[in-house]
Amino acid sequence: AQSVSQHNHHVILSEAASLELGCNYSYGGTVNLFWYVQYPGQHLQLLLKYFSGDPLVKGIKGFEAEFIKSKFSFNLRKPSVQWSDTAEYFCAVNEEYGGSQGNLIFGKGTKLSVKP
Amino acid sequence: DAGVTQSPTHLIKTRGQQVTLRCSPKSGHDTVSWYQQALGQGPQFIFQYYEEEERQRGNFPDRFSGHQFPNYSSELNVNALLLGDSALYLCASSPGLAVIQETQYFGPGTRLLVL
């Protein structure tokens, strides 16, 4: 079965530190890749997405992610985190299903705590 | 432009009861998916509705059923509730099942507690 692995359960950083959250998926076919963020008390919001083209994608709030097909990875990065980035981050894969959009498969999430 | 809305926000039920959760998709969206998010876990896909039919289903028992109405809104029904059904239930909408490269937008969820 297809799966998504997020390597870190909880990451604690100080403000201005750099961030990299790992994500690996198991599906070998055509996939679309997403990072969603869930701020405390808020609903899941899209941070960035990769469908095709340039494997380095930029999202909102200074986040970016790089798709490395040979490694089945889609790691999330931010050069300098802020206290407001404290949230839970979910990597998700959407596989094509019979020529149409498939369901999202999520990782277990990584909690990011940023100390002011 | 209203996003995805869900009702109720919170619900408390006892084992064996039945529950109905509701979702209105984002304007212009016709595909609705439901997810279950247990505490400390990522969302897990339950099923997806398009054109009032269930199109895909995840690994959930038949106690979980749904419906989509002509206005694209959707309901999730869970029968014979178990303690393990306690979770945040998320609805997501997207514009068109046949559009491969599209994003699902999530609602705030309904938090269900089964006692």
Structure description:
- The complex is a heterodimer of chains A (116) and B (115).
- Chain A has strands spanning 4-6, 10-14, 19-21, 23-25, 31-38, 45-50, 56-58, 64-68, 73-78, 87-97, 100-106, 110-115.
- Chain A is an all-beta fold and 116 residues long.
- In chain A, strands 2, 5, 6, 10, 11 and 12 form a six-stranded mixed sheet that branches. Chain A has a four-stranded antiparallel sheet with strand order 3-9-8-7, with no helix packed on it. A two-stranded antiparallel ribbon of chain A has the order 1-4.
- The radius of gyration of chain B is 13 Å and the shape is globular.
- With 115 residues, chain B is an all-beta fold.
- In chain B, the strands form two sheets. In chain B, strands 2, 4, 5, 6, 9, 10 and 11 form a seven-stranded mixed sheet that branches.
- In chain B, a hairpin with a 6-residue loop joins strand 4 (31-37) and strand 5.
- The termini of chain B are far apart.
- The model of chain B has no long low-confidence stretch (mean pLDDT 92).
- Classes of the chains: A mainly beta (116), B mainly beta (115).
- The interface between A and B is medium-sized, with 28 and 29 residues.
**How many β-strands of chain A, per DSSP?**
12
Report helical residue fraction of chain A.
under 10%
Weakly predicted, low-confidence segments of chain B: none
Q: Evaluate the radius of gyration of chain B.
A: 13 Å
H/E topology pattern of chain B: EEEEEEEEEEE
Distance from N terminus to C terminus of chain A (CA atoms, Å) equals 41 Å
DSSP E strands of chain B, number: 11
Largest sheet of chain B: 7 strands, mixed
Put simply, the count of helices of chain A is 0
Gross morphology of chain A is: globular
End-to-end distance of chain B = 37 Å
Instruction: Report the C-alpha radius of gyration of chain A, rounded.
Output: 14 Å
Largest binding interface between chains = A-B, 28 and 29 residues
- Report the biggest beta sheet of chain A as strand number plus sense, adding barrel if it closes: 6 strands, mixed
Quote the beta fraction of chain B.
over 45%
Query: H/E order of the elements of chain A?
Result: EEEEEEEEEEEE
Spans where pLDDT lies below 50 across 5 or more residues of chain A: none
Coarse structural class of chain A: mainly beta
Note the beta-strand portion of chain A. over 45%
